[in-house]
Structure formats: structure tokens, C-alpha cells
Write a structure and sequence with these properties.
The structure holds 2 protein chains of 2 kinds. Chain A is mostly helical. Chain A contains 11 helices and 4 strands. Chain B is of the alpha/beta class. Chain B has a domain of about 170 residues: Rossmann fold. Chain B is globular. Classes of the chains: A mainly alpha, B alpha/beta. At the A-B interface, helix 6 and helix 7 of A face helix 2 and helix 3 of B.
């Protein structure tokens, strides 16, 4: 099994070791599907890190915990809306309504955190908001543990999750949901950033804050908007993860860190980079375990291994630009 | 003639260094006024103070009869609190700054840069009309409208920065060293455009330049700054003949 050459997983389809096929096409597509699902979620969360970094040059370490809050809000609202109705059209609608309200709630939470914990420190040393963010992260996860308990909860499926068989590839309906929702969110975000007046103003602000102000752009409002969008996407990410795994108070920690790695891999501050980095990381984790034979227990080390390699080889990330310090 | 911009006894400090000391000047509506002075004499600091990017330690700035900045320490008309509009609100009053070094949004296209210049204009038809006017006025920008601004030459970027400032439909345009680092022919072209902006579009121009000869020839009134103080103020034609100016700034 360990024979498989690195980075040529597709070629191994034809290759065999001692006459035994290593990975079949069906198995390959199965892992591809799983990797894309996971990667889509990482990408959604990575966008929040990268957008905030692009404008404020700071890593919002509370982002992962906003994701957790979003997942809880989504879970409670979905159960509330669903009541005891059987799976059907209404449960699907209820799921999306719960998701949208959770996005709005998380957006407000993100703006509130920025206003209270980061804005007063904008002129302080660069370390100060970072430490403040770590503090906010603990406050959120401990409050959740205190309010909702430390046990993990299952997010009820909004629809029948009987796996579909496409040939030999098994896809669960909620994998399809995750893929469709994360892709739709990324497309909407990209259109917003590229086409709309406020989206362009966000880009201008991240390129040159002082000049953006000269254009009449209210930079404080842009920063609030950035936190709102990033947090809303994190809420979606949290709910999608909750469908696949569980909801618990510290669920945002590891996922948040990995999404942060994805943002760095793609080039922090770069929106397309974060999308690409997230999907790449999802694929690497899935294929790392399934094909390269990395033990499941070490799965979480893949992301951080990738982080170290990127920092050594291409510290600005795959899509990042080398930033010159302005004097 | 009506005073559009009045700078009343302002001072700006960077720590212990006094960048501007008791500077007073005014710009009349419809004029081209220039400020000349050596590198580091405080010219750029003055422009930054006007747009609210440098806090005042003394004095006040009035635009079109409305006080836009006042130092905290200054006690004027019995009011003890200092106040100033933020940069985006000053821009909304109709002051556009073309910053030193152009500061284009390099990763955005020419068209997107112009869109940013018109950020405060909420009327899509008017924005489209102004963009077309800019492409007519600076044909090179029209030809490159879909290119990233970083691919433009220095002179083209300067024209882009001026066009971007004009997109807001300003009443006063502040130009910080528009000729910096450009070839003489390009500078002549840019100064010709500045004159047209003033004559045709009736935009008041306040020009800061190290290139004293170009600036004085282009303007009606001139100020000379040395070490953060205004040392001379006269009609530009008179400054061109002034012994001191000729010796210090015109190399004669």
C-alpha cells in the first residue's frame, strides 16, 4: 500500500504492485468526493480569515468559535422549526431558514466582536488584537460549554440520508448539499467582491486603506462588513460540518486552525487563494489517509505538515504576493 | 472672489518634530494655486492635514464656509473641543486629493479604479457618463480600461490618479507632486490637462510641486514653504521674477 508514489494518485489507477490493484477508479472518485466535501467547508471558513487579514493584517483567532456558535444556532433553530414534522419539503425549507438566520446572527456577532475587542486596539501593537482574539475565542467556547453542556449533539438530518450509489461510488445526499451550498456561497462571494460597489470598496480598502478613505469610503464600515460576511460564511461552514460530524463547544478550534492553514497555503489575504487552499487541504487530508497510508490518528497532522512545508518553501502562499514593508 | 479653502494658523507635529508651524493660506474659487518648496519642507503634510489624515495641534481649516478641521488645543469662539471630519466625509464635501506617488489600486483595473473614485456618486448613469468623459479626456485610459493598473507606465498612472479624483466631481482638487519621476514631455502633458480641468471644468486646483518653474507657470497664485513655514506669498508671475525664488528654486 505504501508503494504509491506521491502526487500521482491518478496514475496509480493503472499501476499495480505485485499484481494487486492499489486504488480502483471507483475508490479514487469516492475519496475525491469526500475530499471535495471537506475542502469546500475548509474553504468557506478560510475565507473569513483571509478577508479579515486582507484588510486589518491580523488573524482573527476567534473565527473558529464563531463557526461553533453558528452551528449551535442552526441546530436549535432547525429543531425548533421542524418540530415533529416528518422529513420532507418542509424540513428542507426549515433547514435553509435556520441556516440563513444563523448566518445573520453570526454576522452580527462578528461585527460585535470587532467593535468591542479589536477596534479599540487598532492603533495598539500588532500583538494586542491577536491576544484579544485568543481571549474572545476562549470566552465563546467556554460560554457555549457552560450554556449547552460539554456533550456533543447530533444535527438532525433535514432529509433522508440514504446513500446514493453512482456505479461503485457512494454519495450521501448531505455531501451533495455540502458541495452545492459551499460552491454557491463561494460564487456569490466572488461575484459580490468583483462586481458590486461595496465589494470593490472592500478590495480597494485591502489594497490601500489611506487612499480608499480619500475616495470617500468609510473604512470602519468596510471592516464591519468584512467581519459580517466572514462570520456568516463561518456559520454556514459550522452547520455543514455539523451535518457530517457533531456540534460541541470546542468544535471550532481544530477546524478553525485547519481553515487558517488553508488560508495561509492559498496566500493569506487572497480570496481565490483561500478557496483553492481549502479544497486542496480537504483533498490532501482525505487522500493522505486513504491512499498515502497516513494513519487516521495522524490525520490532523497533515494540515500542519503542509503549513510547515509552505512556510519553508513559499511563505507568501501559493497565490500570495511577496509584500514589501512600506517605509 | 470667494475663498473656497482657508487654512488658518495650523500646526502639525510628528512627535517632537514640528512639520508645520503656524501656516495660513487661502485658495480662491476658480484659481490654480501652487505651493512650492524643497523636499521635506512640509508640503505633503499640509495636504494630508487638509484631507484629515494628519491631526492638527493648532489652527483650523475651513472649506466653503464650513470648518472641517480644528485643533484640540485651539480655543475658538469659546468652544474648547477640537473636532475634525474623517477623511471620507471631507471627500464627500468635494475635496479630492491626488496623492504623492499616485497610489493607484494596482490590483484593480483602470475602470475599477475610476469606479472607486466615484464611490460617493450613487447615480449609475452619471458614473458611466463621467467615465466616458475621462476616456475622452485621457484616451490612453480608455484604451487600457480593462487592464490592471500595475501594468500602466508612471505617466499613465498619474493620469489615472487624476481621472480617479475627478470622478467624484470635486470642487477642489489637491495635487501632490503630479510631475514626480516623470519625463519632461509627460509632465508638460499633465500640466496641460490640469489647466484644462481648471478652465473647462471649473475645478479649483491646489498644486504642490518641487518643480517650481512648471508650478508657477501653471498657476495664478503661489506660496513658498520652508521648514514648515510659509515664507512667501505672491502672484505666480511675480514669484517667477522674485530674486529669492529665482536663486533658491529656479536655479538662476
Amino acid at each position: 500500500m505504501l508503494f504509491t508514489p506521491v502526487f500521482s494518485c491518478y496514475r496509480t489507477v493503472q499501476f499495480s504492485y505485485e499484481g494487486e490493484s492499489i486504488v480502483g477508479i471507483a475508490e479514487f472518485f469516492q475519496h475525491l468526493m469526500n475530499g471535495l466535501t471537506l475542502g469546500g467547508i475548509y474553504a468557506l471558513i478560510a475565507l473569513g480569515y483571509t478577508m479579515v487579514y486582507g484588510i486589518l493584517k491580523f488573524i482573527n483567532f476567534a473565527h473558529g468559535d464563531v463557526l461553533m456558535v453558528g452551528a449551535y444556532v442552526g441546530l436549535f433553530l432547525f429543531d425548533l422549526f421542524r418540530g415533529s414534522s416528518p422529513l420532507g419539503l418542509w424540513t428542507i425549507i426549515a433547514f435553509f431558514i435556520a441556516m440563513i438566520i444563523s448566518m445573520a446572527f453570526s454576522a452580527l456577532l462578528g461585527m460585535f466582536i470587532e467593535r468591542v475587542a479589536y477596534k479599540p486596539l487598532r492603533k495598539a501593537t500588532r500583538l494586542a488584537p491577536l491576544l484579544s482574539a485568543i481571549g474572545v475565542s476562549f470566552i465563546l467556547s467556554n460560554s457555549a460549554a457552560w450554556m449547552f453542556g460539554t456533550h456533543s449533539r447530533k444535527f438532525n438530518y433535514p432529509f433522508d440520508n440514504t446513500p446514493l450509489h453512482l456505479g461503485d461510488v457512494v454519495i450521501t445526499p448531505h455531501q451533495v448539499l455540502i458541495l452545492v451550498v459551499s460552491l454557491a456561497m463561494m460564487i456569490i462571494l466572488k461575484l459580490f467582491i468583483d462586481r458590486t460597489r461595496m465589494g470593490k470598496a472592500m478590495r480597494a480598502t485591502s489594497l490601500d486603506q489611506g487612499t480608499a478613505m480619500l475616495m470617500g469610503i468609510n473604512v470602519n464600515r468596510i471592516i464591519s462588513l468584512t467581519f459580517a460576511i466572514g462570520s456568516a460564511l463561518a456559520a454556514v461552514g459550522g452547520i455543514l460540518i455539523a451535518l457530517d460530524f457533531k456540534v460541541y463547544a470546542t468544535m471550532g478550534t481544530m477546524t478553525g486552525l485547519k481553515a487558517f492553514v488553508a488560508a495561509v497555503v492559498g496566500g493569506i489575504g487572497n480570496i481565490s487563494g483561500a478557496m483553492f487552499g481549502g479544497i486542496l487541504l480537504g483533498l490532501l487530508e482525505t487522500f493522505g489517509v486513504a491512499i498515502f497510508g497516513i494513519p487516521t490518528g495522524l490525520k490532523d497532522t497533515i494540515a500542519f505538515g503542509v503549513l510547515i512545508i509552505i512556510l519553508l518553501v513559499k511563505p507568501e502562499g501559493l497565490f500570495g504576493k511577496v509584500e514589501k514593508e512600506k517605509v | 472672489m470667494k475663498e473656497l479653502l482657508t487654512i488658518d494658523d495650523i500646526s502639525v507635529s510628528y512627535g517632537n518634530i514640528k512639520a508645520l508651524q503656524h501656516v495660513s493660506m487661502h485658495v480662491n474659487e476658480g484659481d490654480i494655486v501652487c505651493l512650492i518648496g524643497a523636499n521635506g519642507s512640509g508640503k505633503s503634510t499640509l495636504l494630508k492635514a487638509i484631507v484629515g489624515q494628519e491631526p492638527l495641534v493648532g489652527g483650523s481649516i475651513t472649506f466653503d464656509g464650513e470648518e472641517i478641521c480644528r485643533a484640540k488645543a485651539a480655543v475658538i469662539k469659546g468652544e474648547k473641543r477640537g473636532r475634525h471630519l474623517t477623511t471620507d466625509l471631507i471627500a464627500a464635501k468635494g475635496i479630492a486629493l491626488v496623492p504623492e506617488g499616485r497610489r493607484v489600486f494596482a490590483d484593480m483595473t483602470v475602470e475599477e479604479n475610476l469606479d472607486m473614485g466615484a464611490f460617493l456618486v450613487r447615480d449609475d448613469a452619471l458614473i458611466a457618463e463621467r467615465k466616458e468623459a475621462m476616456y475622452d479626456f485621457f484616451p490612453i485610459l480608455g484604451a487600457r480600461r480593462r487592464q490592471k493598473t500595475r501594468s500602466l507606465s508612471g505617466g499613465e498612472q498619474q493620469m489615472m490618479a487624476i481621472a480617479r479624483a475627478l470622478m467624484s466631481g470635486p470642487r477642489l482638487i489637491l495635487l501632490d507632486e503630479p510631475g514626480l519621476g516623470l519625463a519632461p514631455l509627460v509632465i508638460a502633458d499633465i500640466f496641460e490637462k490640469i489647466d484644462m480641468i481648471n478652465k473647462q471644468d471649473k475645478v479649483t486646483v491646489f498644486l504642490v510641486e518641487q518643480n517650481a518653474r512648471m508650478a508657477l507657470k501653471a498657476s495664478t497664485e503661489g506660496y513658498v514653504m520652508e521648514n514648515g513655514r510659509i515664507v512667501l506669498h505672491d502672484a505666480s508671475s511675480a514669484l517667477l521674477e522674485n530674486e529669492q525664488v529665482r536663486a533658491a528654486y529656479l536655479g538662476e
